[in-house]
Structures are given as structure tokens and as C-alpha cells.
Design brief:
Layout lengths: L1 E5 L12 H15 L3 E4 L13 H25 L4 E5 L10 H8 L2 E5 L11 H15 L2 E4 L2 H10 L5 E3 L7 H4 L9 E5 L6 H14 L7 E5 L5 H7 L8 E5 L3 H9 L3 E3 L9 H8 L4 E4 L14 E4 L4 H12 L2 H18 L2 H19 L1
Parallel strand pairs: 1-2, 1-3, 3-4, 4-5, 5-6, 7-8, 7-10, 8-9, 10-11, 11-12
Helix pairs in contact: 1-13, 7-11, 10-12
């Protein structure tokens, strides 16, 4: 099929790295591996954020109308695609382009990782959410990567077509590295920004402060606008216990992970966390909170340990327990890598995604 791909929150060509950009790129790669012809339909970022207001929404709709006109003229000249694929439409970043061009050209419409929350029906977001809900109801299929998101869509739109796809990564860089874990070496990879990321750094610092007598060493990969605030959270630890490695390329991240004994990241509010899958593919057991979408990618007792959200004592105890048990770490490391390859790899996802599209579109046509 010829597929027009659009990610209203963050284009796969956006300059700033994030989980959203990475997943958008990986979905495109999955579609290409299944031999579909994929083009990026638009780079328009339809994100209003917490400061959403009527003027901003009006400006965004005007920009979307310009994109609709551009695509319409383009497709009338060279032919339209078969399918519009929208990744991650939600109340802060709705798809204001796809539904219109699909109606004009008779295209099938598909979403992946769409979400709906009735708690967000406030102010300008009410209209934006209504648009998301309308697209979900009219889609040939809505592909959900977590049980939580699928349940939210089902509650809001019981008649919507919904399918499950497990979160996945391009695992090659991480499985290619031979695991050479250094005892007591902890690793975390995360952006340093406000909200859930800062909350997770705070929880990590609190947990590690409770096991200061354990000779752990932490490598932190990542950067962001709150770097100073994050580093201040760890200021009480002795010199040399933490390496601040900054932002690194994925190949470098894979190398760093290969030398880790444990991946530690509480995961406050994580949709699922691609970094958890990368760590497990590299052969690291994970210690995280049993919160949000984290249990979708970390199997408690098999590929890591999940503790009660916010319980710093339990989180610290889980880290200490695994650091002190090399045999258990080794067992979990093998399980983690095998599980990612079998269930969360790019080849597995490409096969599953293609099957979803063919079944869903076959039922619609």
C-alpha cells in the first residue's frame, strides 16, 4: 500500500530526540519492512501544550488548512495514497489534517497510540478531544500499544475498531553488543525535563540515598533544560559515584548499557518507556515502579523487579537485592534479551502491524 504517515505531536524528522520521535521513526520502518511505500505527509506540529488558548488553536487550524490545500493539490496531480496513518493523536496534539483529506480522497484512516481522557474535557481541550474522538470512531483501526490506552478508547468509543500491538524497538544495536556487566554498575537513560522525568530523577535519588552503603556506581545518559536541577538532586553523593554522560548517539548508548549490571529508572507516568526495552535488549534487568505502562514492557520477577510507586524504601531494597545476587541478575538478563527479541523487536512488530492493517482494511473494503 501507499501510506501517508503523520505524527502531529512530533514528526520523525523533528530535531529534538524523544520517545515519541523514536517510535514514529520505528513505525515508519515497520511499514517499510512490510513492503509498504511510506511518505511523510506533513511536518506540521499540532502541539499546543499547557498554554493552549483560542488564538493558538485558530492559528493551528489555519496552518492545517494550508497543509490540506497543499496535499490536495499534490495528490490531484500525482495520485493519492491508499491510507493515512496517524501516530499518537491526543488532546494536546490532534490530527487536523488527516480526516479532511481522507474524506476528500476516500482514504482509509488508521491511528496508532491514540488516547482519550474525559478528565481533559476542559476549555480549548474539549474541542480538541472531540476531534480526536471523532477520528477514533471513524478509523479503520486504532492500534493501541498499552492496555491502558486501549481501555480508554473502548470506554469513550465502544464501537471503535481497536487492535493491540506490543511496544517495540529496533533491537539490532543492543543485541549485537556482548553483555559485559560491571558489578554494581547502574545505568539510566532519560531526558532532563519537567514533569514525570524530573519526578523519576527525584525518586531515583531518594532510593539510592537509602543504599549509600552499597558500592554502586551510576551512569546517567541524557540532557535537557533541567540538567542543573537534576544534578542538584544527586549532590549529596560522594564524588565519583555518578557519571553525567550527556546526550549520546544510540550506538554509544548501546555500548554503555552493555557494561551495566542494572537499569534503574522509576518511570513515573511512563506510557511504556522504550528505554526499558533497549536496556533489556542489551541484557540489563530493570528496577522500576509498577506504574502506568511500565508493566507492559518489564515482567516482574522475570526481566526485572517492579515496586510500589512512590515507595522509596522498596525501590532501594530491590536495587540492593539484585546487586547482591549475581545469579539472579544473570537469569533476568537472559530472560530480558530473549523476551525483547521474541516479542518486542522490529521484525516481530513489522509482521504484527502488517497483519493488523491487512485484516482491518480487508474488513472495510
Amino acid at each position: 500500500m501507499k501510506i501517508a504517515f503523520y505524527a502531529p505531536l512530533k514528526s520523525p524528522e523533528h530535531a529534538v530526540p524523544s520517545g515519541d520521535r523514536l517510535m514514529a521513526r520505528q513505525i515508519v520502518e515497520c511499514l517499510k519492512r512490510a513492503r509498504h511505500e511510506v511518505t511523510l505527509a506533513s511536518g506540521l506540529r499540532a502541539f499546543l501544550g499547557d498554554s493552549a488558548h483560542e488564538a493558538g488553536y485558530a492559528r493551528l487550524k489555519a496552518e492545517a488548512e494550508a497543509e490540506i490545500a497543499r496535499l490536495s493539490a499534490l495528490w490531484r496531480g500525482q495520485g493519492a495514497p491508499d491510507l493515512w496513518f496517524c501516530y499518537h493523536p491526543y488532546y494536546k496534539a490532534p490530527d487536523l489534517i488527516g480526516p479532511a483529506v481522507c474524506q476528500t480522497f476516500g482514504l482509509a484512516y488508521v491511528t496508532a497510540e491514540a488516547s482519550y481522557s474525559p478528565r481533559r474535557n476542559l476549555g480549548i481541550w474539549r474541542e480538541m478531544q472531540a476531534g480526536v474522538l471523532q477520528t477514533v470512531r471513524g478509523a479503520a483501526v486504532n492500534i493501541g500499544l498499552t492496555a491502558r490506552d486501549r481501555a480508554g478508547l473502548t470506554d469513550a468509543a465502544p464501537d471503535a475498531a481497536i487492535a493491540a500491538l506490543k511496544p517495540f524497538i529496533d533491537e539490532g544495536l543492543f543485541t549485537a553488543q556482548a553483555a559485559q556487566p560491571e558489578p554494581h554498575h547502574l545505568v539510566t537513560v532519560a531526558m532532563m525535563r519537567a514533569g514525570d522525568k524530573l519526578a523519576s530523577f527525584r525518586a531515583l535519588a531518594e532510593g539510592l540515598s537509602r543504599i549509600a552503603d552499597v558500592p554502586w556506581h551510576l551512569s546517567v545518559v541524557g540532557d535537557g533544560p533541567l540538567r542543573a536541577e537534576v544534578q542538584a538532586l544527586f549532590a549529596g553523593f560522594g564524588e565519583g559515584r555518578i557519571d553525567w554522560l550527556g546526550q549520546r548517539e544510540r550506538a554509544e548508548v548501546a555500548d554503555i548499557l552493555s557494561k551495566g549490571a542494572l537499569y534503574v529508572w522509576p518511570g513515573c507516568g511512563e506510557a511504556y518507556g522504550l528505554a526499558y526495552l533497549e536496556a533489556q535488549a542489551a541484557g540489563l534487568p530493570v528496577v522500576a515502579f509498577a506504574t502506568a505502562g511500565v508493566p507492559e514492557v518489564v515482567e516482574h520477577g522475570e526481566t526485572g523487579l517492579l515496586t510500589e510507586p512512590g515507595d522509596a524504601a522498596a525501590y532501594a531494597a530491590a536495587i540492593a537485592a539484585l546487586l547482591g545476587d549475581a545469579a539472579e541478575r544473570s537469569r533476568m538478563a537472559k530472560n530480558a534479551r530473549a523476551r525483547v527479541v521474541a516479542e518486542h523487536s522490529l521484525p516481530a512488530a513489522a509482521t504484527a502491524l502488517d497483519a493488523i492493517l491487512r485484516q482491518s482494511l480487508g474488513e472495510k473494503r
